Amino acid sequence: MHARTPGKWLLAFVHGGEAAAAAAVWTRCGWAVRQAVALHMDVLDGFMEVVTGVLTGLVFKLGKLLVGEYNLQKGVKGEIMFLQPELQRMQDALKKISRSRSDQLDRQDRIWASEVRELSYDIEDSIDTFMVRCEGGQLAAPDGMRGFIDRSLDLLTRFRVRRQVAMDIRGIKRRVIEVRERREVYKIDGAGARPDAVDPRLLAHYTKVTELVGIDDARDELIKVLTDGSEASKQHGRVISIVGCGGLGKTTLANVVYLKIRAQFDCWAFVSVSQTPDMRRLFRGILSELGKDINEETLDVKHFIDAIRKFLQAKRYCIVIDDIWDISVWNMIKCALPDNMGGHVIITTTRNFKVAEEIGGAYSMKALCHESSRELFYRRIFGNEEKYKRPDEHLTEVSDRILKKCAGVPLAIITIASLLANKARDKMEWLEVYNSIGTGLEDSTDVENMRKILAYSYYDLKYHLQICLLYLSMFPEDTPITKNHLIWMWIAEGFVQCEQQGKSLFELGECYFNELINTSMIQPVYDRHEAMIEQCRVHDMVLEVIRSLSSEENFVTILNNEHSTSPWKMFRRLSVQNSMVHHDSTFPSMSMLQVRSVITFSSAFDLMPALASFRVLRVLNLKGSYLPQGCDLKHLGNLFHLRYLGLDRTYSNELPDEIGNLRYLQTLDIKGSNIGSLPSTVVQLRHLMCLCVDQNTRAPNGIGSLTTLEELSTLYLCDESTDITEELCHLTELRELELFFWNNTLEKSLVACLCKLRKIQSLVIWASGGEYNFDAWVAPRHVRRLQLQSCWFSRLPDWMTPSLLCLSSLWINVRELHQEDLEILGRLPALHHLYLMLDHEKLKIPQRFVVGACLFPCLVDCRLLGFMGAVFFHQGAMMRLKHLAFTLYARDVREIASSDGSCFDLGLGNLLSLKDVMVYFRSGGAGEMEVEEAKAALAHVLEIHPNHLDYDIWG
């Protein structure tokens, strides 16, 4: 109390007659206030079930002001209690509006909705600013007179802040009353309640909704054109340009052909162009796809062209250039692709017939026939059910009418089918959809009709999903969007607010992501093992729709080399897509005071000084934008509202100590930078939930204080990391953990620590410097990914059972394995990727194994290494397996062939989905002739496989 009394005296001295008000700073919310708030908690609790979008969390934050230790001035609490139910009514009205297309609303409704959205932004900014200024920056003051002065000035500042919030709240109340008076009744006629979404999680993980239908003939036709003919004719190279309207499947066809023929060439690449391409980024992408990375950011377009030409000069190459809009872009790309007489294939896609003709080899994309359309339609609705072949008779007629409107356009078919998959199998409901999607595509190729179909699907989404989908308009065309980063940005923006049924904010956001996939509004991009969804894409037709909608609602402003897409004077979110960004030219006439998100897709970025004006910025993602040498990042420390900071691949050298000022930061991503160590102030970020760094970035001591962390990669553990290993035990909220481990002495402590992290869903360990015993570790039951390189189990652990329902990707090293162990692995219901390393070669255990029918039902990618005995595959095993690698000894080939007097056979012909095989061949002491005969027998088995396998035999 002695330290506080002088502060009260100073406030009274400075403010004179306001001493009584100043004294209120020291009081807490009394019993009467808490009782009054309790009367309104039914409003608050009901609201939290639906709180999303523009008004997300406002009622909750107002409640925090009432019950928290903010010591509001007299009268302000009453104003807040007035605002809570008013905002609730506005939220309900906005939700109704969100269910109706803008062309179905009268002008008054649209104007009112716009006013409410802008008002809600201003309310949230005001409240957040107050909370940040009250809660942040409270450092321990020294003793003595200096400490007295510091504490007194702090009290004075806080009192002024409270006076300001009182003025703001009263101003907000006046604006709310004005909005209410302009529209006396908050009621919009129209859409009723929506049905629940289909399975919010499993569908996105274990099914693919874009199975190819009706594409085989076009694929075979193009492959024949590209590969037939004499060797002399092939030397000149061949070009095909696939042309057709949006949604016909041009990119899908190009990709199928590309994947089928690329192994015939020395190198290959698949790149997308988009409507307003950054040519430097495009050429860098071609080089990267070809396997040649250039880190020099200062290269101009000519240097990139020269580098590509030099790399391709003596090679046979296959390149796909997707989505060309303008012939001038093709002419520039063509300069980089030499006609080297070595034989090459170039495939392009475009919507423009004139562009296709000028490129040459125009191939007009055809719509699906009625039978293929029906198959795609039913398969998306009914999944793998037999019903999709014979649907109920009462649905057949309306289905055919819907398909006639879709006119064989796959995107339209999938979009409408995804919508109907969430509805009852009821003819009247399906007719309602049919009557709501406009005139259809059957009479016109006009993409406007496609937009109507997509817009209908958008308005059928739940309100929180609409907001999350609109946020994707921040990203350029054909940009792969990392799933985890997107979800963290949603959380930073406040789109994901309330934890539900034991789910964290991220897990709830993941449900949103999967629902958008299930409705086909976004397209999943799987990892290379097809085990987990790592990214998503937005079809360019869908992107056009959500860009238009976000522009109408002042949701996103896009800045590119041509113009800004927004007519609004005030900007809320900026997507900077200029090729070069400088603070003195990019924002000459724009007010940045209310910008909440900035995402850049620029080659270079020099806006650090201008960031000081972004006072309520929550998301700053500079991923891939080169920051000029000497760029000072200390300005970041002034962005007190910041929740998401992405510096991935910005080539920054150092993170400033001021980063510790960002008390509300939730995500920090500096992967791909040159930052050698994190500043010690990072441990002050007590709201941090995601930390992504490079494996060579050192973490400071005290990282165990970041107890809210859910995602951590890549944590480096070495000889000096004893304290950090012990602190890792405190991070019990971790769901995803990636470690780089290099210290034998830490083995036991690390294993003991990992046993305490029971929420782990993904564990990746990269270990060097030896082999590590993990027998004592037990995996959590919800684990999805285990990748334990150099971590060994003496036998298959007891916890490895089919009860691990979510385990999709497994890299495990086992000293000794038995047949029953392999069968246990084969019954894991969700396993898509398996890397199984045994120690049988070292231990001299020549045991053979059999993969029986029905085992590994979901497996797509399988690596069976370190085996001394052959593995046999029975009919019905591994029905979805595409990629296989295994170890084989020469003696096995001889013994298997001679055992029954027939040809060598492992049962590879029973693997009906197999595409490619890698065999690690071991001589095992056999003579040279025996080895050659064994290899020839193996090659014969691989060559006669009905799927015409791509294969390699190593050793």
From TrEMBL:
CDD domains from the UniProt entry: RX-CC_like (cd14798)
Positions of the Disease resistance R13L4/SHOC-2-like LRR domain: 594-948
Any one GO MF annotation of this record: ADP binding
InterPro entries: Apaf_helical, Disease_R_plants, LRR_dom_sf, LRR_R13L4/SHOC2-like, NB-ARC, P-loop_NTPase, RX-like_CC, Rx_N
UniProt key word Repeat: yes
Domain (Disease resistance N-terminal): residue spans on this chain: 55-138
Keyword Nucleotide-binding assigned: yes
UniProtKB keywords: Coiled coil, Leucine-rich repeat, Nucleotide-binding, Plant defense, Repeat
Span of domain Disease resistance protein winged helix: 474-545
Example GO biological process: defense response to bacterium
Start and end residues of each NB-ARC domain: 220-383
Protein family (similarity comment): Belongs to the disease resistance NB-LRR family.
Matching PANTHER family: DISEASE RESISTANCE PROTEIN RP, OS12G0273300 PROTEIN
Name used for this protein in its record: Uncharacterized protein
Organism: Miscanthus lutarioriparius
